[in-house]
Amino acid sequence: MLKKSAYAGTLESSDAYIQVSPHDKREIELESSVEEIYGEAIIVLIEKTLDEMKITDVFVKVQDKGALDFVIKARLQTAILRACDLSEPVWEVL
Amino acid sequence: MDAAVSFSRFDSTSARRVKRVEEFLSSVELKISSDIETFVLAKENGKIIACGGIAGNILKCIAISPEKRGEGFFLSLMTELLNTANDKGRKDLFIFSSPKNRLFFEECGFRLIQECDNQVILMENSENLAKYKKSLSQYKKDGTKIGSIVMNANPFTLGHQYLVESAASQCEHLHLFVVGEDASEFSFVDRLRLIKEGTLHIKNVTVHEGSDYIISKATFPTYFIKNRGEVNQIHAKLDLNIFKDHLAPTLGITHRFVGDEPHCKVTNNYNQNMKRILQEVSNSVSIKVIEVPRKQESSKAISASRVRGLLKEKRYEELSKLVPKSTFDFLIQKYRD
User: Fold this and answer.
1) Buried residues in B97-125 as b, exposed as e (16+ CB within 10 A)
2) Which residue in chain A is spatially nearest to B77 when comparing CA positions?
3) In what order do the strands lie in the sheet with B173-178?
4) In angstroms, rounded to a whole number, what is the distance separating the alpha carbons of residues B42 and B55?
5) Which residue of A17, A62, A86, B44 has the fewest C-beta atoms within 10 A of its own C-beta?
6) Chain B residues inside the 8 Å CB shell of A19
7) Closest by CA position to A61, among listed A27, A23, A13
8) Per-residue pLDDT tens for B228-247?
């Protein structure tokens, strides 16, 4: 469960800036420099990552600058952990 | 990022550090905004190379020294600014800037709300305008004459009441927007309550709590406007165009009412701008502006500043003739001890 809003990442090239906050449902807002080509794939990746972490009620805002998959995933996991006030990830679900 | 660059943040209470920011800004021909609460500073080898500030939910005074421009450093600065804002719980942010910077801020997730004549743009990094319009639309009333008033009411006087009554009698429904800032003498909550109480007897009025889309003069940043004489004009244009393009169509507003302004030159200029901008047909929309003559008392126009003056001098007897009972009771309770 998210306890507060949190963020991770940067706006720089090949990275993503991800903000998450508690919400009444799952909502994802994506802006990406490679949206036409990879937009759908990024959304799938975010959904999958949230599923794995069992996070349902969250607002995710992603500002992507052409980050690779594992970068986006890591940024999202970090933001979620911060929002849940967890310092250590549950390694087996990563 | 360049390893020699370091970021720091500090509150505006540190006068010595604010002074250094001011010097840096003036070196790039910008002025500091006095309402900034927190600054973000980038230094390289002890020298300031960039800065930015947070005032409420507005990012202001974003500047980079000329030699650091054009190498992606802007994005590092903006990341730091967004992090700082997020840490203060400010997620939904606004930027006023010069139109030439639009693409830069779009890269950081900001979207254009309004652009005026190549002089100013307003951007936000949320979808709040769309949400606000949606919530506003539930108050839409059908009619051929739908009026509107925007007021600060600092505090609500018989003059304001007269304006609302007069406007309401001339249209099928009246939408009254209260400027939502706390920069006035009376807080937003108090001003709103007095407006609601003072208009309770008028049936065809909806009072709307102010939003970020009625641009207050107090929070309008001016640091990027080179010609100081144009500040009022540019503010008026931006505010009125947002009203015309976004708020008015959502509620089907056809008329805007305003008290005439015989004394204050600034307000009178604003009124003249209002007529020009709102009445001009654009996107097949035109809003008729109707100036309502001020209500007089002892052959002097009633104004909120007159009320504040009397309040300061504790002339309650005279004051009671200028405000509705609800306002008078509030003032007495608050100020007479």
Assistant:
1) beeebbeebebbbbeebbebeebbbbbbb
2) A11
3) B205-208, B173-178, B146-151, B255-259, B288-292
4) 18
5) A86
6) 86, 91
7) A27
8) 788 888 999 999 999 999 99
Are residues B160 and B199 in contact, defined by beta-carbon separation less than 8 angstroms? no
Predicted model pTM: 0.88
How far is residue B141's CA from residue B110's CA, in Å, rounded to a whole number?
Answer: 32
CB contact under 8 Å between A31 and B109, yes or no, is: yes
Distance to chain B for A54, nearest Cα, Å: 24
Beta carbons of B75 and A13 less than 8 Å apart: yes
Q: What are the DSSP E strand ranges found in chain B?
A: 5-11, 38-44, 47-55, 58-64, 94-97, 111-116, 120-124, 146-151, 173-178, 205-208, 255-259, 288-292, 296-297, 300-301
The verdict on a CB contact (< 8 Å) between A61 and B108 is no
Nearest to A9 by CA among B308, B30, B3, B78: B78
Q: pLDDT tens across A38-61, in order?
A: 999 999 999 999 999 999 999 999
pLDDT digits (tens, 9 = 90+) for B131-140: 999 999 999 9
- Taking residues A6-32, report their average pLDDT: 96
Q: Which of A17, A21, A61 sits opposite B79 (nearest CB)?
A: A17
- pLDDT at site A93: 67
Q: Which two tokens stand for residue B55?
A: 């005032």
> In whole angstroms, what is the distance from residue A68 CA to residue B270 CA?
51
Q: What share of chain B has pLDDT > 70, as a percent?
A: 99
